[in-house]
Amino acid sequence: MAKDGRHSRALNRKSSSFTIILAILVMMSFVLLMLLSLGILSLPITSQHFPKANDISSLIRSSQRTDGLGERGEQWTEVLSWEPRAFIYHNFLSKEECKYLIKIAKPRMKKSTVVDSKTGRSTDSRVRTSSGTFLRRGQDKIVSDIEKRIADFTFIPVEHGEGLQILHYEVGQKYEPHFDYFLDEFNTKNGGQRIATLLMYLTDVEEGGETVFPNANRNFSSVSWLDESVECGKKGISVKPKMGDALLFWSMKPDATLDPSSLHGGCPVIKGDKWSSTKWMHVGHHHVKAEQEILSLLGSLKMRLEVGESGSFEPSRPCTLHVENRKYN
């Protein structure tokens, strides 16, 4: 009897151990499935699906979202340079989105200007010979979707960005090397310093029109889309426009100092024409034109309150504020 009891207890212990092991395996399988479904883990891939050279797509949020207009091609991000910090996001926009931005901008195109550092106003300059216009931030759903996508990619809030600028370069037109950051106090009053720029190419360019970084420190000389044969881009790095691609570069270093290696320009268009869209982003909230005028109005407003004979304010008598209805670009 004692022997049978010991045998029974041994079986019970084995059964309990088996149950515990089975429960642990089931729990681990459940956790693994959860991690896979959330995209935190991924299954091994074959060699034909290895990421492209300098691919940093795993460092950004999912780029396979279906928001926006039309279907985008395969999306991946590549390092262009670390001095300045610059990256190419392939197929950031769909063809339909590129065509849409050009379509809504065409009726409003004017000769491009540069910002006067003393007054903050736009002024003509031989440095910039393109034509362009600004879109209102969030002016429609398609523009809002693109701006949200920019915020997801850069981790810079939509409210920190200026409205999209659409630019058109014809044969011979260019933009001489310049900085996007400001060297004066006037232009930093709204949102602070410009921290980064996203340049989106809306068309292919038959010849010319490259974006060039003359002061860039070459990190990846073997990258296929670096065009070293371009005359205006022989110093530094130049990038050939490709419809739907986006070029992100930072005007400030990680320590918040200005980065002189972010000097950049647009090479002259030799054949065809070039359409692009620029999003400038600031360190703080950038108020669009309508917000600026409303804030200015509220700051200087002297409200007329009707006062009774006793000299005290009578809340029963309403005070009406009339604001002129305007259209803002």
Question: How does this structure look, described?
Answer:
22% of the residues lie in helices and 21% in strands. The longest helix has 36 residues, at 2-37. With 329 residues, the chain is α+β, with helices and mostly antiparallel strands. The strands form four sheets. An eight-stranded antiparallel β-sheet has the order 1-2-13-9-16-7-6-3, covered by helices on one side. Strands 8-14-11-12 form a four-stranded antiparallel β-sheet, with no helix packed on it. A two-stranded antiparallel sheet has the order 4-5. A hairpin with a 2-residue loop joins β1 and β2.
Strand order of the largest sheet: 1-2-13-9-16-7-6-3
Measured as a percent range, the helix fraction is: 10-25%
Q: Indicate the CATH architecture of the domain at 82-289.
A: Sandwich
Task: Please report which band the strand proportion falls in: under 5%, 5-15%, 15-25%, 25-35%, 35-45% or over 45%.
Answer: 15-25%
Defining traits:
329 residues; alpha+beta; Jelly Rolls; four-stranded antiparallel β-sheet; 4 helices; disordered C terminus
